[in-house]
Specification:
Elements (H helix, E strand, L loop, with lengths): L2 H6 L3 H31 L7 H17 L4 H24 L5 H19 L5 E3 L14 H22 L3 H11 L1 H6 L4 H27 L1 E3 L6 H20 L5 H24 L7 H40 L1
Antiparallel strand pairs: 1-2
């Protein structure tokens, strides 16, 4: 097939029709990205617990709803379950001396079995057919965008408020400089535990919303979630810095991180619209993350090169005189 024939076969309307769904899913994953941001940027921890806690949020939501609980109660319990998962990772890391990345892996592995237990041994559980008590749903993307946007906005406001409190400021200081924070009397181990619990609570809430959106929970629904979360964080930060530069404050970072999830899913929709192999989505995700990770470094290197060239030129001028 020639390039002309290939591009002629692409229908722009199909891409346009997929955008609302991409935005709805992006907002849901944006909440997850906010959780990843807390550990990855604030605590400088690559927490792999999220691949398990994301599924936990979805599994708890579906099973409690099937048991007859109202959806808002299901989501609160899911959020608390995620917090417990993060708490366990924090204890393994701080109290037992296990490196953070290994602590996350251990909790993630354990959660696979726990999630199967939650879903009564089944790998997949669906809501009751025709379930109406859903905050977001694939059948109504407009409502899902509104509700997802409202959840995201409330969470950003609460996070902005919390990280302005004494405890929140101590948590941010812990990630910035462990030694200095400890010297100032901050219990950095407790801060790490709180940060990991808060992070995974948000991740589980995101999993709860996604299970509602797709109307089922699957034991593998969180596989690779950390990659998507990191992609959203990095994309949001790079775009935020490109637009606002030095004026990008903490609130702006939170907003752009959430928007990073939306941008990521828009890119994925474009990839699918281009009829590229869907099995390669993880590959494309890795490439996207690598590119956005490289942008700040290459930009910095470029500035340094210009500075060195300028300094060399100035020195040559002085020597010539």
């Amino acid at each position: 097939m020639s390039f002309a024939t290939y591009f002629a076969s692409l229908n722009p309307m199909n891409l346009l029709s997929s955008m609302p769904g991409a935005v709805a899913q992006g907002l849901i994953w944006g909440i997850m990205a906010l959780g990843v941001y807390i550990t990855f940027r604030m605590l400088d921890i690559a927490d792999l617990t999220v691949d398990g806690s994301f599924t936990t949020g979805g599994a708890v939501t579906v099973m409690l709803k099937l048991a007859g609980l109202p959806m808002w109660e299901c989501m609160i319990v899911a959020l608390l379950a995620g917090a417990v998962a993060g708490l366990i990772t924090g204890i393994l890391h701080t109290k037992l001396g296990i490196p953070a990345i290994l602590s996350g892996i251990l909790t993630q592995i354990a959660l696979y079995s726990v999630n199967l237990r939650i879903m009564s041994g089944a790998a997949n559980k669906s809501f009751t057919y025709g379930e109406k008590d859903l905050f977001v749903t694939l059948g109504n993307t407009t409502l899902s965008i509104i509700v997802g946007g409202a959840f995201t906005l409330v969470i950003i406001v609460l996070l902005y408020w919390y990280f302005g409190t004494e405890q929140g400021s101590a948590l941010r200081a812990t990630g910035s400089n462990h030694a200095m924070s400890s010297a100032q009397g901050i219990n950095i181990n407790n801060m790490k535990i709180i940060g990991l619990a808060l992070s995974n609570a948000l991740v589980a809430l995101s999993g709860s919303l996604l299970s509602q959106y797709q109307q089922f929970a699957d034991v593998n629904m969180g596989r690779g979630a950390i990659v998507i979360g990191l992609a959203a964080v990095i994309i949001g930060e790079v775009i935020g810095l490109a637009i606002l530069g030095k004026h990008l404050n903490f609130l702006g970072r939170l907003i752009f991180v959430a928007l990073g999830g939306v941008i990521y899913y828009i890119v994925i929709s474009i990839v699918l619209w281009l009829k590229l192999e869907s099995n390669d989505l993880k590959l494309f995700t890795a490439i996207i993350v690598a590119l956005f990770l490289a942008v700040p470094y290459l930009k910095k290197q470029s500035k340094n090169s210009f500075r060195k060239a300028k300094k060399k030129g100035e020195m040559s001028d002085v020597a010539g005189k």
